[in-house]
Amino acid sequence: PPVPEGRTAHLSAAQPPAPQLVLLKMLEVLRALNREGGLALTKGGGYNRNAFKRLQKRLPALPDAEFWLEVCQGGNLLEEHNDTLRPTPASERLAKSDPQDLLTGLGKLYVSLGSSHESAGQMVAHLGPLRSSLIALLGQLPPTTLAGLSAALETCTPDILRLPSLRGQGVQWRVWLGEALSGPLRQLGLVALSGEGEQQVVTSALLNVPAAAPSGPAWVVQPNFELVVYPAQLNAEGMELLAAAEALRFDDHSASYRLSRESVYTALENGLSLESLLAGLEKYSAAPLPPGVRSTLQGWAARRERLVAPVGLPRRAWLLGLVAG
Q1: The sheet that has 39-40: what strands, in order across it?
Q2: Rounded to the nearest 5°, which phi and psi values hold at 209?
């Protein structure tokens, strides 16, 4: 059925985050897993409790690390090998993902997420098809109120899709809709919300409007080695350069990273040259690279070159253990 038309010009709508922000969160999970050597699993396939705690310590910017692990698994970026969850070869290409393709993929991935992220979803008889219908609708609607979206979803779906499960009763799908919007859809950057109640404004990132190409500085490097990052201005090269830093915090439209000796060592061991790192940090910064940051990075690189691993121990494993210890 056609989508009901509504008057939306007067609505004050928040803008969804840049797709690159979601990409950064997924890359941060992969970075932490690589540094940990993977995530040990129990015999039942769950996360080993102690291994997961160690991983969480490497992810201070992601208090919802378990959600992002599920997202990476659903996106075929992780695989089980010898009772350990590890990044797949495909994950190495993630930083070069097209932002619009990423949004489309996240929309499809949302449909298969576990129902635990929406408690009312367990009270809906046909959660998967209902999610698919919502994603399709979000790809057509301009900013609208929660009440308007609810009415549109009711109009565009057969009654059978909105029936409660045996455990539910009444119009559970309306409760589920609110949870879906404020929960996983917002976490995945697929919607932005402003206001409250039935007049809350929902803005979709799935309207297939081409994103503006990065045109400004991607970050500011500060003297304390922290980077204030503007995800909307990140291109693939900038994404890859951030592998030399670790995330401290993710906000709605920005992120904070820090260059540490461990993160820089890891990037250098993975093939990034010091010259490329310094040039890239300067190229995408809104201000010149602080002299103290430049000299410290040069010092770390020089020290790394002087170090010799003990006989029989892989150099990379030894270096990372030395820095971490």
Answers
A1: 39-40, 84-87, 78-81
A2: -85, 120
From residue 165, how far is each of 116, 180, 182 by CA, in Å?
Answer: 15, 17, 22
pTM assigned to the model: 0.89
Q: How far apart are CA 313 and CA 317, in angstroms?
A: 7
Lowest mean pLDDT: which of 159-173, 188-202, 303-317? Answer: 303-317
Nearest to 296 by CA among 223, 194, 203: 223
pLDDT digits (tens, 9 = 90+) for 13-72: 789 999 999 999 999 999 999 999 999 999 998 999 999 999 999 999 999 999 999 999
If one compares 134 and 313, the residue with the highest pLDDT of the two is 134
> Which residue's structure tokens are 């402003």?
194
Q: Are 220 and 228 in contact (CB under 8 A)?
A: yes
Say whether pLDDT at 132 is over 90: yes
C-alpha torsion angle, residues 116, 117, 121, 123 (rounded to 10): 40
Residue from 130, 207, 156 nearest 4 by CA: 156
Listed range (102-111, 116-125, 278-287, 304-313) with the worst mean pLDDT: 304-313
110 Cβ contact list (under 8 Å, min separation 6): 131, 135, 184, 185, 188, 190
